[in-house]
Amino acid sequence: VPKPKEIKDVCNKNSAYQTVYVPIIKKQKFDNGSIPTSKTTDDIDKTNYKFKYIKKDGSTLDALTILSLHLSNYNLLIKNVPGDNNCQFHAIADQLNQINIKDWNDITLRKKAVKWLNDNRDRPMDNGKIGKQTFLKDAVGIDDWKKYIYNMSKHNVTWGDEATLLAFSVLFKIEITVISSLPNNYSHCIKPPEIWNIELNNKIYIEHYNEFHY
Fold first, then answer.
1. Does this model's pTM top 0.90?
2. pLDDT of residue 66
3. How far, in Å, CA of 53 to CA of 195, rounded?
């Protein structure tokens, strides 16, 4: 991955984009155990996409253009991956390969993340000194943990989420910067809570075409 330009470090403790651990994700609703088919960026009608950036002259930029502009701040380019409902896992595999962590693919990464999430469901996210202590299963925001794990294990069906990204951050000791097509607050960092005392050795970047595709 090319070295980023000198910009604000979204993973810095004082950053406005610090990782928020509660909740990690919104609750997911599954219809018969599945979610809508994902798309690649080539499948999206950019002119009708709901997120627009309005310039001073009143003109707008489509979401893909916005994403490209955001990536340019990091000296990065879009590298597309299959839109087969495994796109997050494809993207992580590609980035791991670029930092010389090889031989992982979308299938093996999903299995690894799901096992880690299931094994760490009761892992504390904080020290409990302020309010009630939060555990991983609570922070994910899922009422039925067993169903969540079952659905997340479905390859080609269920999308990865911020919980799977947290799993990858821990498993591979990496910071994961997610750069989004959202016009504002477009970058955030995934990394373990400080209480876990995990030393991170590297950093990767993935882009998120919001609501559609990694």
1. no
2. 86
3. 38
SS3 187: strand
The residue annotated as part of the active site, out of 84, 94, 126, 155, is 84
Please report, to the nearest 10 degrees, the dihedral formed by the alpha carbons of residues 21, 22, 25, 26 taken in order. -170
State the 10-residue block means of pLDDT for the chain, 214 residues long. Answer: 44 36 36 39 41 62 85 88 94 96 97 97 87 88 92 95 97 96 84 95 92 86
Q: Is 81 helix (H, G, I), strand (E, B) or coil?
A: coil
Q: H or E element: which one contains 176?
A: strand 174-180
Which tokens hold the place of 43? 């499948």
Identify the pLDDT of residue 68: 87
Compute CA distances 149 → 21, 114, 146, 187, 203, whole Å. Answer: 19, 7, 5, 27, 27
Report d(CA 63, CA 181) in Å as an integer.
Answer: 6
Rounded to an integer, what distance in angstroms lies between the CA atom of residue 53 and that of residue 19? 24
Query: Is 84 assigned a catalytic role?
Result: yes
Supply 148's token pair.
């969540």
User: Does the annotation count 213 as an active-site position?
Assistant: yes
Question: What are the backbone dihedrals phi and psi of residue 178, each rounded to the nearest 5 degrees, phi first?
Answer: -100, 120
Catalytic-role residue among 11, 70, 87, 188 = 87
Is 189 known to be catalytic? no
